[in-house]
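Fill in residues.
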């Protein structure tokens, strides 16, 4: 038995005209594609963004079919690393088809690049959009989850949630094509519970009607799945209802905390009310916010009931008369601003932690009191580089404190000089730590051949300290043969042996004479060594002159 075909794929629109519910967005998309056909594109890329199930991917595929464009698609099921994007989408964005038609590059879920599987994908996507010679179409649910440079490099086209009547109309056409008799009330119930998501409505219809010849209201057993979209129904009840108890009960069906719900009411109150009603509405909303503040301070969540009633039933009772008409409710703009400033806030918090760690204060105190003071210190040319090096600030943090951008010449100069200073300090610490081990007094810059004689002398001293009476086999002549040309002075091999008074460190002898012992210290020069220095005027570097 062949597998059942999903109705969402079977009845996907073939042309942009068949895409329902977002006429303005479709017209903008068609105009963008037409500009590519005229060889004068408006922008290299567009971003289709909006809630799930509103027809973004269907519009992208319908665009390719309507204009007879070849297309390549990458979605969340593909590994969208920098290498994969450059390997697959990169060549496609720079070469036309054999027919001379543009090739459409579709990158789905462009706002959902995360984890190891998509490492470097966002940067590669930005590079692709900036360097493309073919139309690129990005699809995202959350527009402000994408990086700002990527949003600036592409044209944004918003798809909105669909009305229940539009979804019900599409479901009715599917039932007619599948020869299923459907009760209009059943279709409307499916459409309302879809919450503006066409894909969900079609899936619910298929689950209830597939294999059936008729569909009645009692056959529909779906529940509301998208709690976020039902917030608009609650707002309708709050601003247009007549019962304060009904408004409070409607808020119970939400999976929203009072802190989130008050933001929705605050954003849409000026759109629904005006005049004295608006003043009264904000008066009740302010009292609700007082109770929310007491919840945060006292951790007494029982006070939520008062805040919830004031922001729902209280706001509803603030209007003097019933209000009607369509109101285009919108999400809280504060959330949008928070998304836009997320990166800047992260940079601010990182700089505050670094400053607080050196000043032994909290990051909150730094943000409130010290950020401006540190910025004034960085503005001083003499103090900027040492301060940035001490605090280990990066370019973005320096730019934030100076009130500039990270690409300016001043910020880059301070950052680079601070990096050099930190590198020099780290090298110095390593050098001191190496010398403090006691194994060798040579600097780290010496070569192995230069360190070999000193290592041999250190080994001889260790043998002497251990009471070994056997002479060290390596002679000075053998050592000098490794380091450089043999000097004219001939030095006999040192012999070591323990003495009752103090250990013997080194011994010198002329050819044929017995070995002499001497105390620890700088060895004497050979006879011919001094004559050589007098003739040349230069003294040969001793093994101990490091």
């Amino acid at each position: 038995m062949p597998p059942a075909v999903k109705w969402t794929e079977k009845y996907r629109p073939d042309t942009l005209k068949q895409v329902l519910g977002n006429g303005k967005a479709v017209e903008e998309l068609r105009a963008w594609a037409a500009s590519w056909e005229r060889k004068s594109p408006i922008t290299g890329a567009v971003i289709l963004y909006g809630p799930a199930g509103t027809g973004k991917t269907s519009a992208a595929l319908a665009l390719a079919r309507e204009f007879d464009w070849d297309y390549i698609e990458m979605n969340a099921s593909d590994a969208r690393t920098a290498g994969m994007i450059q390997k697959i989408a990169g060549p496609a964005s720079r070469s036309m088809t054999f027919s001379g038609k543009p090739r459409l590059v579709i990158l789905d879920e462009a706002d959902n690049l995360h984890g190891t599987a998509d490492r470097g994908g966002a940067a590669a996507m930005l590079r692709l959009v900036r360097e493309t010679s073919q139309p690129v179409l990005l699809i995202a649910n959350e527009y402000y989850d994408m990086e700002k440079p990527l949003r600036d490099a592409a044209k944004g086209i918003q798809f909105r949630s669909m009305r229940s009547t539009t979804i019900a109309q599409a479901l009715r056409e599917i039932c007619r094509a599948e020869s299923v008799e459907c009760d209009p009330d059943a279709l409307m119930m499916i459409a309302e519970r879809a919450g503006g998501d066409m894909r969900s409505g079609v899936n619910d219809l298929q689950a209830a009607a597939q294999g059936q010849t008729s569909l009645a209201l009692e056959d529909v057993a779906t529940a509301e799945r998208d709690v976020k979209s039902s917030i608009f129904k609650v707002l309708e009840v709050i601003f247009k209802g007549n019962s304060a108890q009904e408004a409070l009960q409607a808020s119970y069906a939400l999976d929203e905390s009072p802190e989130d719900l008050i933001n929705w009411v605050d954003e849409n109150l000026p759109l629904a009310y005006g005049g004295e009603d608006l003043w009264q509405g904000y008066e009740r909303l302010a009292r609700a916010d007082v109770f929310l503040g007491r919840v945060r301070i006292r951790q007494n969540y029982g006070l939520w009931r008062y805040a919830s009633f004031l922001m729902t039933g209280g706001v509803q009772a603030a209007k003097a008369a019933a209000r009607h008409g369509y109101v285009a409710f919108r999400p809280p703009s504060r959330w949008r601003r928070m998304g836009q400033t997320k990166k800047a806030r992260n940079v601010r918090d990182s700089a505050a932690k670094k400053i607080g760690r050196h000043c032994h204060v909290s990051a909150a105190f730094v943000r409130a009191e010290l950020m401006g003071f540190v910025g004034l210190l960085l503005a001083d040319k003499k103090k900027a580089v040492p301060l940035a090096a001490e605090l280990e600030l990066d370019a973005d943090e320096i730019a934030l404190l100076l009130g500039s951008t990270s690409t300016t010449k001043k910020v880059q100069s301070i950052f680079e000089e601070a990096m050099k200073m930190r590198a020099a300090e780290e090298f110095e610490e390593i050098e001191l730590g190496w010398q403090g081990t006691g194994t060798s007094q040579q600097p780290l810059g010496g070569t192995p051949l230069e360190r070999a004689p000193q290592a041999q002398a250190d080994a001889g001293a260790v043998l002497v300290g251990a009471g070994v009476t056997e002479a060290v086999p390596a002679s000075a002549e053998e050592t000098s043969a490794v380091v450089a040309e043999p000097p004219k002075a001939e030095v006999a091999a040192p012999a070591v042996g323990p003495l009752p008074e103090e250990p013997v460190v080194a011994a010198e002898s002329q050819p044929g004479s017995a070995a002499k012992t001497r105390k620890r210290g700088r060895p004497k020069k050979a006879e011919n060594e001094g004559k050589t220095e007098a003739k040349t005027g230069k003294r040969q570097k001793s093994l101990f002159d490091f």
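The domain at 7-158 is CATH 3.40.50.300 (Rossmann fold).
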